Automatic annotation (TrEMBL):
Keywords: Oxidoreductase. The keyword Oxidoreductase applies. Pfam families: Flavin_Reduct. Signal peptide: none annotated. SUPFAM superfamilies: FMN-binding split barrel. The lineage of its organism: Bacteria, Bacillati, Bacillota, Bacilli, Lactobacillales. This is Flavin reductase like domain-containing protein. The keyword Oxidoreductase applies.
Length: 160
C-alpha cells in the first residue's frame, strides 16, 4: 500500500464540499474548504470534519469552541476555490456574502445548508485533527449541493 494509491482511491470517492468557518482569537472570520465531513449521531446531533496539522488555520481550530459547516450549493464552486486558496486568506470574507449569527459564528450566505456547532470533542488522528461538533442551529435551502470527485467540483448529475 502506498500514499499515492490511498490518495487515488480517496479522490475517486465523491463527496460534498463544505467551507468551515469560525472567528479567530482576534475576532476575525476565518474559513477553509473541507470535504472531510460526515454525520456522526442524531442523539445528540453530531457531525465531524478534520483539519490537517499543516493548515494555516490549525492553531485556531485547536482553540475554538464554535464553528459553522457551510454545505456549498451547486453554483458555489468559486467560493470553494476562494476558501481553498492559501494566498487569499486575508480577503476571503471580503469576496463573499456572510453574516455573524446569534451564536457568534460566521455563516456564508446562499449555501445549501449551514450547521452551526459547538465543539463536542477534538481527536488527534495522525496528521489531522478531527473535530466533532454538536449542531445547535440549522439553516437549509432546497438546492442541490456542490460535489467533489476526481479532483473536480461540479453539479449533481441529473441522471445515474
Amino acid at each position: 500500500m502506498t500514499v499515492h494509491s490511498f490518495k487515488e482511491v480517496m479522490a475517486n470517492y465523491p463527496t460534498g464540499v463544505t467551507v468551515v468557518t469560525t472567528f479567530d482569537g482576534k475576532n476575525e472570520p476565518i474559513g477553509l474548504t473541507v470535504n472531510s465531513f460526515a454525520s456522526v449521531s442524531v442523539d445528540p446531533l453530531l457531525v465531524l470534519w478534520s483539519i490537517g496539522k499543516e493548515s494555516s488555520n490549525y492553531k485556531t481550530f485547536q482553540e475554538v469552541d464554535r464553528f459553522t459547516i457551510n454545505i456549498l450549493a451547486h453554483h458555489q464552486k468559486e467560493i470553494a476555490l476562494l476558501f481553498a486558496n492559501r494566498e487569499q486568506t486575508e480577503v476571503r470574507f471580503q469576496k463573499c456574502d456572510w453574516y455573524q449569527s446569534e451564536h457568534q459564528v460566521p455563516v456564508l450566505e446562499n449555501v445549501a445548508a449551514a450547521l452551526q456547532c459547538k465543539l463536542y470533542k477534538r481527536i488527534d488522528a495522525g496528521d489531522h485533527l478531527v473535530l466533532i461538533g454538536e449542531v445547535i442551529d440549522i439553516t437549509h435551502e432546497d438546492v442541490l449541493p456542490l460535489l467533489y470527485h476526481q479532483r473536480k467540483m461540479g453539479e449533481f448529475p441529473t441522471s445515474f
